[in-house]
Write a structure and sequence with these properties.
rod-shaped; Heat Shock Protein 90; alpha/beta
Length: about 375
């Protein structure tokens, strides 16, 4: 028994269908020929009718199988009818000539109908492909239009946010200064000191949030210098190691090739790696590891950050870089959006996917310097 869903089953079904069609054609030709051979030549009208019946399987064969099907069926009909012509009408030369001419018409009819069928099928296939291409183009245009509208809304929102954030920073600075004075005046351990400390913490959190808004809304162009990427990674891991230890997570750095020379803004790339690795730490369970792998790929160097967390829901993957999209209770949803802007400003790419064996993988691609060196100022020492 051939499995229904297998390629072999499809082939078997198609081959079987073709076989049945050919069998039907040749059985029909055989029946018509038998009628010719068993009917007395005196019944000329019946023979004329039988002769016309040959056109049925010829046209059907051409319709089913195109030019070659029409030709094969016509030749089969001619070969089946030719012995009858020579046997029954040998003494009637004019009629024999007309019947032999009819055999040529069999072949011409099969070729003509088959040719027309092939042309019609090609036109139908071209129309189908054109319709599919048009549908794809319309869908892409609709998506592009939606993205442009979304980009316009985000741009307007970014301008408003930037203006508000700028205006909020000054009052926050005044509040922070006032709270610092209050903290120096109250006795430690009193309720006043506790409330003032809480207020100072919240003001600091608001200040950091405002700074993130400004960073996203008003990004500055990267100041490119030549750096060793592994050194940048090492510095970020050094900063995050205490956080990883508190979470019970092990940070593992793996460099598959020698040091890579890239032209980047070191502080901006540190910010990106800091956000990505910190997200991995917060998503990973205790006693797991986060692996940061660096390796070359064509004209780029790749940094992959792989964690062992729960991964990302499929419906969230499409929005992971959207501003203000977050699954964290107290997140701003700007970390990855800022990271994407920074990487794209470096002519690189960043994407997120779920690992096959669990967890998430953030892949960052940055262009290598030609030959691993550049005329850019070099900062190759470890930070």
């Amino acid at each position: 028994m051939v499995p229904v869903n297998s390629v072999g089953a499809v082939w078997w079904k198609r081959t079987n269908s073709w076989g049945l069609k050919w069998a039907g054609l040749f059985v029909t030709l055989a029946v018509i020929s038998v009628l010719h051979y068993t009917t007395n030549p005196e019944h000329a009208g019946l023979h004329v009718l039988y002769q016309r019946l040959y056109y049925g399987p010829i046209i059907v064969g051409a319709y089913w199988f195109g030019v070659w099907g029409g030709l094969a069926t016509a030749v089969a009909a001619a070969l089946a009818y030719l012995p009858h012509i020579r046997h029954a009408w040998a003494n009637n030369a004019p009629y024999t000539f007309s019947q032999n001419s009819e055999l040529v018409i069999f072949v011409c009819a099969g070729l003509l109908v088959g040719f027309l069928v092939d042309v019609q099928r090609r036109l139908t296939e071209q129309a189908r492909r054109a319709a599919a291409s048009l549908e794809t183009t319309n869908r892409e245009l609709t998506e592009s239009h939606a993205q442009l509208r979304r980009a316009d809304r985000l741009a307007a929102l970014g301008q408003i946010a930037a203006g508000l954030a700028h205006e909020i920073r000054n009052p926050l600075a005044g509040m922070k200064g006032a709270l610092d004075i209050v903290l120096t005046k109250v006795a430690p351990g009193t309720p006043e000191a506790e409330f003032a400390a809480i207020a100072a913490t919240e003001v600091e959190r608001l200040n950091e949030l405002v700074q993130e808004f400004l960073t996203y809304a008003r990004p500055h162009a990267p100041e490119l210098r030549s750096h060793r990427l592994q050194h940048v990674v090492e510095h970020v891991l050094l900063l995050l190691r205490p956080e990883a230890e508190r979470a019970g997570v092990v940070l593992v750095q793996e460099d598959r090739e020698p040091l890579f020379e890239i032209a980047v803004d070191q502080e901006q790339i540190r910010q990106v790696l800091f956000n990505v690795v910190l997200n991995g730490i917060q998503a990973s369970p205790a006693s797991s590891e986060i692996r940061i792998t660096t390796f070359p790929s064509g004209s780029h160097v790749i940094v992959e950050v792989t964690d062992r967390g729960p991964g990302i829901q499929s419906d969230h993957l499409a929005h992971i870089f959207d501003p203000f999209f977050t699954t964290k209770p107290h997140g701003t949803g700007l970390g990855l959006a800022i990271s994407q802007r920074i990487i794209e400003a470096h002519q690189g790419e960043i994407d997120v996917r779920n690992a096959a064996d669990g967890g998430a993988v953030v892949r960052i691609a940055l262009p290598l310097l030609p030959g691993g060196s550049s005329d850019l100022p070099t900062q190759g020492a470890r930070p």
